Amino acid sequence: MWYDCFLENLSARYPKKGQLAEELMDLLCIEREAVYRRLRKDVVFHAFEVAKIASAWNISLDEIIDIDSGKITFQMQQLDYLDPQDKEKYLIQAVIDGLLRTKDFPDTEFMEVCNRLPRPLLAGYSYLNQFYLFRWVYQYTDNEEVIPFSQIIISDGKKELTRDYYRAIKQVPNTNFVFDHKLFDNLVRDIQYFQSIRLITDEEKDLIKKDLCALLDYLSEVASKGCYPETKNKVNLYVSQIGVDTNYSYFYSNESSLCFVHAFDKYEIYTQNSQMINSFISWMKLKRRTSVQISEVDEKSRIDFFEQQQQIVETL
């Protein structure tokens, strides 16, 4: 029934019923008991309430009601990644909880094609993560004053969520990354540019460089073992021989499936449309045809690749 799907969508957004009730009270300007009656299905949300919720929370009613409108709706959830508010923290925590559940579904798969470091890897390195936040602030926020790297302050709450996400993503049973062949080259040039305009100091550059070297050492270990060393879950690494335009990914499990286009460095547009998800899976797997696998291949090829990347990083 479409109404059950609608309620499931609301619960997925705010898994804690108390938080969901608070958000609906504020949005619909109704009392708490009136909200709970609707969530218990003693009464149903009025049509105008459903429309208001769908509009405010970017919920596709076409997909919920299973109407074939001929359109595929993507949604975007904007987050303050520097200092997330409570509702944003609940959303990030819901993602983390969902990742932790994937260990119970051995067929779960995550794949990302990327021209910049993907969040599942970036999250484990504090200065690299700070650099991407700094670049995001520089390029996509409307601050009149340019904020240097040193003034990008990440709250303790955000740091904790980032650490939790980094651990949770490794619970996914099957992961594939396809890297643009110039990913590290482009990243080094970005760092050099911001250093040249005095927004990153020499000392800060060295800290970022140290993180980059540590990440390459970690990826080399992952490539050698073909898995995350912490969880032993399968990881395949590829390098695309042609350019990658942006980061895009899909997540597929028995519980839920989504595909993402990663936009504006830190935001994502996503859909649960089954047709688009199947297309994404097909497109991204075809990407392997123009890629070279660097995990669990002959040792010389793997060593050569990581030595080349280390040489690029050493130019910092």
Helices, by number, come to 13
**Terminal Cα span:** 58 Å
* Biggest sheet layout: 8 strands, mixed
Count of domains: 2
* Secondary structure tally: strands: 8
Mean pLDDT: 85
Shape: globular
As a whole number of angstroms, the C-alpha radius of gyration is: 21 Å
Beta percentage is 5-15%
User: Which regions have little confidence, pLDDT < 50, spanning 5+ residues?
Assistant: none
Helix content: 40-55%
Pairing-aware structural class of the strands and helices? Answer: alpha+beta
String of helices and strands: HHHHHEHEHHHEHHEEEEHEH
Read across the widest sheet, the strand sequence of neighbours is 1-7-6-5-2-3-4-8
Please supply descriptive tags for the structure shown above:
316 residues, 2 domains, eight-stranded mixed sheet, 8 strands
